[in-house]
């Protein structure tokens, strides 16, 4: 636990942030405080990326293990060279294509970067967010801003200011309420310190788009069970984004997976458990006759909508008091790969394959 402080909330225009509000938040950053703010992906919990004590406050407020590194956010490409050394040409090629945007690059860090930001590793994770509030705050602060998601560690990421307050009220100084985020899942993370480069975490930029710039990019899902050693990037632990209920992902073809969800739900109900289902819109009617809580994610064919709703849906369904949550595997094409990654981690790896 952390000592409670008074957390203030300031409403800010997400498209044209008011300069006086941004200036007030920037003053908190410069003073070593913590400010939650919207990005295009999720809300971030910001502190000066060059202030070791401020970065430590992030870990303390989130109850985040020191082995889990934090992304540094910049507002101008020149800040990349402040944080990183020996920046490879691939970094500039990716930045030209995807920055500002939901892409994080892992590069070698300079000594100016506090070791605790990078979990003691020789690297630093950097991205330039595509949100007017985030960019204005970084620029006004005059320093890169360290910012993991603004939630308690391992909880579903926050996509509204209300989600931030649910987890961090009394733990941080200020929340900038800029409304709901529009992508809803975190950035993709590419490690450029290895050859060939590796996608460490799928995110808001699809692997297909990344390979248009970096054809040699490799990817193999990594689900790390423990945090005893420094992680290469955030969001890689097996347990992450988890609700306060057991979540199980059901894979297989559409019809078989839906039938298995019905069977698992009925068995749990017979055992006296309360059941919830994160359902694609087209699946909800087939579950309507069951006494389960249903939260709809959007159409399976529209992963952009599903991604935007995912974390809010996880928080909404846990608030109904269910014991078990079931969700159908969205597949691994395009942005669905990112959605699947978040669901599998929220489920701590619990996947049932229908028909097996």
What is the element string, with H for helices and E for strands? EHEEHEHEHEEHEHEEEHEHEHEHEHE
Number of domains: 2
Just name the CATH architecture of the largest domain. Answer: Alpha-Beta Complex
Main beta sheet strand tally, sense and closure: 11 strands, mixed
Q: Would you identify the regions where 5 or more consecutive residues have pLDDT less than 50?
A: none
Helix-residue proportion: 25-40%
Could you tell me how far the N terminus lies from the C terminus, measured between alpha carbons in angstroms?
43 Å
Which structural category fits the helices and strands?
Answer: alpha/beta
Number of helices: 11
Give an account of the 3D structure.
With 356 residues, this protein is α/β, with parallel strands linked by helices. It folds into two domains: 8-213, DHBP synthase (Alpha-Beta Complex); 246-353, Rossmann fold (3-Layer(aba) Sandwich), CATH 3.40.50.11030. Helix content is 31%, strand content 20%. The protein is built from eleven helices and 16 strands. It has helices at 19-30, 52-62, 78-83, 89-98, 132-141, 161-168, 207-213, 254-270, 284-287, 303-318, 336-346, and strands at 8-11, 35-38, 43-48, 71-73, 84-85, 103-109, 123-127, 145-146, 174-177, 188-191, 198-201, 246-251, 275-280, 293-298, 324-328, 351-353. Strands 1, 2, 3, 4, 5, 6, 7, 8, 9, 10 and 11 form an eleven-stranded mixed sheet that branches. Strands 14-13-15-12-16 form a five-stranded parallel sheet, sandwiched between helices. Strand 10 and strand 11 (198-201) form a beta hairpin. The termini are far apart. The mean pLDDT is 95.
